[in-house]
Write a structure and sequence with these properties.
The complex is a heterotrimer of chains A (257), B (355) and C (296).
Chain A (H helix, E strand, L loop, with lengths): L1 H27 L17 H8 L1 H33 L3 H16 L2 H14 L6 H24 L4 H9 L4 H30 L2 H6 L7 H7 L7 H28 L1
Helix pairs in contact in A: 2-11, 3-6, 3-8, 3-10, 4-6, 6-8, 7-8
Chain B lengths: L1 H25 L11 E6 L6 H11 L2 E6 L3 H9 L7 E2 L3 H9 L33 E14 L22 E3 L3 H11 L9 H14 L3 E4 L4 H7 L4 E5 H10 L3 E4 L5 E10 L6 H11 L2 H11 L2 E2 L2 H6 L2 H4 L14 E3 L7 H13 L1
Parallel strand pairs in B: 1-2, 1-3, 5-6, 5-7, 9-11
Antiparallel strand pairs in B: 3-9, 4-7, 4-8, 4-9, 4-10
Helix pairs in contact in B: 5-6, 6-13, 7-8
Chain C lengths: L1 H43 L3 E2 L5 E2 L5 H5 L3 H33 L6 H9 L6 H12 L4 H8 L13 H26 L2 H9 L4 H12 L1 H16 L3 H6 L7 H10 L4 H34 L2
Antiparallel strand pairs in C: 1-2
Helix pairs in contact in C: 3-7, 3-10, 7-10, 8-9, 10-13, 12-13
The chains are: A mainly alpha (257), B alpha/beta (355), C mainly alpha (296).
Chain lengths: 257, 355, 296
């Protein structure tokens, strides 16, 4: 085992470095004194100060987090149920649905955005936070379902049958057998959905209405006047908070064990 | 269940922080936003300083909500398909023409717009809205060439410098089909709004010859490329070049002698605006000389207000990238919507990219 | 015995209608917020562009006929090539990472997954700018290579096809790692152990045991990487210097620059048809192999 792991570990470490290299640069440049972020002009904290003053940016951050959170919860619930339902369907129907679920991934995002906007306008729904969330749930459902199905397809049906034979009802089978076995997949799905939603630009743009500007919308519109290191500062801050959250939960977990 | 609780706790932690930040951002002495009228301003990001908005909010006892778009076409796409709720928007010149034609705008109420009468003389009557019934010019400028005077010692005066093989790999062009073709068409002595297939074909040939010299086509970070020395010649709008100057003083800006684009971003009130009267007052406020001057300084774009020109710092006023010298006006041309002709540009542009 | 059989039969009867109700909310949602809007744009793809960029509702095939121009074939070919390369690299880099994570102690696994995703909670545009800082002529990558003595003068890294692929791999790596992790986590280490005990070569262990058993994850991961990378447009614009076009750029351009929604929709539907055909073929291959190994 050990001999084999060495190579794998090396690639993994390299992959993590690859993932975090640009992030280090991003954080470093949040302290850059230059307004134009490509050249280094000495260290400063002014972007963090500017960030705290920037109401519009903070409001956009808040919108983004809210949308990501709500749409993740919604999509995980709907997509998870869909995956469970599909699993028990006849093989042929599963295949058709599977193909259908890939469709939303295949269509270009800008088209999905335009299409959703046309729909909402036709339904006379005023564009706003709600319409953005509806749209985000729609593009996250297939992601969640695909991730959870990856796991379900490899799940041994005997386990569930055994539980049923031992007298467990459908809910108990789900709660005590299927759900624990699905946990890694649900975890993965939640992470993917949250991340995709947080960074989405096109669908959000077309479905957002007055007062629903999100962080990506805000940042893209800064292109004309220059994207300032304020955005780096905000990104760094969110990272640090997430890291603290992770460390905190680890600490709690350690104490429990 | 613990693993499920953890991410939720994490997210809550995040939300709490963001909420806290928002609260302290807004904490500067206003409450009861619910009862005050709300004005929705749809604009480019950072087009107006937060302190300017706060002053208006205080003065009028209202709340201003800012939403942002990143291109004229996005703005149009949204409004055309029936999105409502926005009051004031900031389209550019050619887009104003389209929006008027599509019936998306409200006629302005002159009695509320006292500050709109003190415009620069050459902006008093513009081809897309000659009587200014629907729009008030807000900021304006040109497209030209930003260059590093330490490398290019004799100041260039022609677009042809962008075809000079000595600067191979150190040239950036805008990532915008109309502007790139506009520059070539002007250098060929043609109008940048040409719809003659042969002329466009000839322009494409010239651009194909230039392509090996071009490092990148970009509309969003040529200021950074100039400032960091990655490129020494950049086709671009004056404002970003002026920003690059602040970072690297050897950067200069020139509007070639063959002519170039003049643009203006205009303030308009939308036909579906819920707060039309307030919208008029907001436009009037943005055009107040002192407010306009502050905006001009902040963005490094020229204000359309004649009085603001006198109030901005001399360094801003005398910078040709920010305030185009008035003797250039004769060789500047407005970009117009070319209707079906756009397909010609489109095909030529795609071919240019794929070569 | 008979009583148990009958209870199982009734459970089966119950189960036959249950899947429908479980799947219903998700299916309804996707019908309303995906299928219906999709039909709207399908209709648009047969209309034509009005003079000012609106939509003229006259039925025409013109948009599809326009796409027969060889130029578009070239764009599509290039996009497929970039996407394939991206998927392959993501797989080669992502599989070991997923494997190591799935084989780490169970309570650390969520942490590792979170660490894989965290970089993507920053803004896409600043992340891409960070890559530009690294890759530019006077950037970190060149300085590092020079200091290590690997090169003698700075390389042209930014605004090259290589930069585009690096950017795409960076953007989509997590979407490969997560499904793979899910599949590997489920893989019984005893099977791998057994293969080793039988003196299988390292290559055989991977190709005959690990890969077949994690096929659903590989299929899922490849789809999640391949499809969005075909349609990407910001990465090729920023890191590739907009010197060539990917199909995503073209679609974006038609919708948002030229305001030719009918043509944009037509390109989208053609792309969709091609990718769907590829995915179905892929599923047949990969899914078939998977099905036979399980004996249904």
């Amino acid at each position: 085992m050990k001999r084999r792991s060495a190579g794998l570990n090396a690639v993994s470490v390299a992959a993590m470095l690859f993932l975090y290299g640009p992030i280090l640069v991003l954080v470093l440049y949040s302290f850059n004194a230059a307004h134009l972020s490509m050249t280094w002009r000495g260290a400063t904290l002014k972007w963090y100060g500017a960030l705290l003053q920037d109401e519009a940016l903070l409001a956009a951050t808040w919108n983004s987090l809210l949308i990501a959170l709500v749409s993740t919860v919604g999509a995980t619930a709907l997509g998870g149920l869909l995956a469970l339902g599909m699993e028990q369907m006849p093989h042929r129907r599963q295949q058709i649905l599977e193909g259908g679920l890939v469709l939303p991934l295949v269509i270009p995002e800008v088209m999905m955005g335009v299409a959703l906007m046309l729909l909402f306008v036709m339904l006379r729904m005023p564009l706003g936070l709600t319409t953005v969330i509806l749209g985000h749930i729609a593009f996250n459902i297939p992601l969640v379902t695909i991730m959870i199905r990856t796991r379900l397809r490899k799940l041994d049906p005997m386990l569930r049958e055994a539980a049923a034979d031992l007298g467990a009802d459908a809910w108990q089978v789900f709660r005590y057998v299927t759900l624990p076995l699905l946990r890694p997949a649900i975890w993965g799905a939640v992470l993917v959905a949250f991340t995709v939603s947080l960074d989405d630009f096109l669908v959000t743009f077309f479905t957002a209405g007055p007062g629903a500007t999100t962080l990506p919308l805000k940042v893209y519109s800064m292109i004309k006047s220059g994207v300032t290191p304020e955005i780096n500062a905000l990104s760094a801050l969110l990272l640090v908070v997430s890291m603290i959250g992770v460390a905190g939960s680890l600490y709690l977990q350690r104490r429990e064990v | 269940m613990r693993p499920v609780i953890r991410p939720i706790a994490l997210c809550l932690c995040w939300l709490w922080l963001a909420g806290g930040l928002t609260a302290c951002g807004q904490g500067s002495g206003d409450d009861a936003t619910g009862t005050r009228p709300v004005l929705h301003y749809f604009t480019w990001s950072d087009y107006v300083g937060p302190e300017i908005i706060r002053e208006f909010e205080r003065r009028e006892q209202v709340k201003v909500v800012i939403d942002t778009f990143s291109s004229n076409e996005e703005l149009l796409a949204k409004l055309q398909s029936g999105a409502t709720g926005y009051d004031v928007a900031v389209p550019s010149d050619f887009m104003v023409a389209i929006m008027i034609q599509q019936g998306l705008l409200t006629e302005l109420d002159r009695t509320e717009l006292s500050n709109a009468s003190t415009l620069e003389p050459h902006l008093q009557s513009l081809p897309f809205d000659p009587e200014r019934r629907y729009s008030v010019p807000y900021l304006w400028g040109t497209v030209g060439i930003g260059y590093d005077s330490r490398i290019i010692e004799t100041p260039p005066d022609s677009w042809s410098i962008l075809w000079d093989p000595r600067y191979k790999g150190r040239i950036s062009m805008l990532n915008d089909q109309r502007e790139v073709f506009g520059a070539v068409l002007r250098s060929m002595g043609q109008s940048m709004n040409s719809t003659d297939p042969q002329v466009i074909e000839a322009a494409k040939e010239r651009l194909l010859r230039q392509k090996p010299l071009v490092k990148t086509y970009t509309s969003d970070h040529y200021d950074q490329l100039l400032a960091s020395g990655e490129v020494v010649l950049a086709q671009g709008w004056g404002g970003p070049v002026a920003r690059a100057m602040a970072d690297r003083p050897s950067i200069r800006y020139v509007v070639p002698k063959e002519g170039a684009t003049i643009w203006a971003d205009c303030l308009v009130v939308l036909r579906t605006a819920p707060q039309k009267r307030l919208a008029m007052r907001f436009i009037n406020y943005l055009m107040e000389p002192a407010v306009a001057a502050r905006t001009s300084e902040r963005l490094r774009f020229a204000s359309a207000s004649r009085l603001a020109r006198e109030m901005v710092a001399a360094s801003t006023r005398d910078n040709p990238a920010v305030y185009p010298p008035l003797d250039q006006l004769a060789r500047l041309e407005w970009m117009r919507d070319v209707g079906k002709g756009i397909r010609l540009y489109d095909r030529a542009w795609t071919e240019l990219k794929m070569q | 015995m008979p009583s148990e059989e009958s209870s199982r039969a009734s459970a089966a009867a119950q189960a036959s209608c249950r899947p429908f109700w479980l799947a219903l909310p998700g299916l309804l949602w996707m019908t309303l917020f995906f299928l219906v809007p999709l039909l709207l744009v399908l209709a648009i793809s047969f209309a034509s562009r009005g003079t000012y960029g609106g939509i003229l509702w006259e039925f025409t095939w013109a948009n599809y006929l326009d796409l027969l121009h060889p130029l578009y074939g070239k764009i599509l070919g290039q996009s497929l090539w970039y996407a394939t390369l991206t998927t392959a690299i993501c797989f080669v880099v992502g599989f070991p990472l997923a494997y190591v994570i799935a084989r780490s102690p169970a309570r650390w696994q969520p942490l590792w997954l979170l660490l894989v995703m965290l970089p993507f909670w920053t803004n896409f545009l600043v992340r891409t700018y960070a890559w530009m800082i690294i890759l530019r002529q006077d950037g970190l990558a060149n300085h590092l290579l020079l200091a290590l003595g690997l090169i003698s003068e700075p390389l042209e890294l930014l605004y090259t096809p290589a930069a585009v692929v690096i950017g795409l791999v960076y953007g989509y790596l997590p979407f490969m790692v997560l499904p793979l992790y899910v599949a590997v986590e489920r893989l019984d280490p005893a099977l791998v152990e057994a293969a080793w005990d039988l003196y299988a070569s390292r290559w055989a262990v991977w190709t005959r045991v690990v890969v077949p058993l994690t096929m659903p994850g590989i299929v899922g991961g490849c789809i999640l990487v391949f499809i969005p990378s075909i349609g990407s447009f910001i990465t090729p614009d920023l890191l590739g210097g907009a010197r060539s076009m990917m199909i995503g750029n073209l679609i974006q351009h038609e919708y948002l620059v030229v305001r030719d929604w009918p043509l944009g929709s037509a390109v989208s539907f053609v792309l969709m048809a091609i990718v769907m055909a590829a995915v179905v073929l892929y599923y047949r291959q990969a899914g078939g192999a998977d099905g036979s190994s399980e004996g249904r």
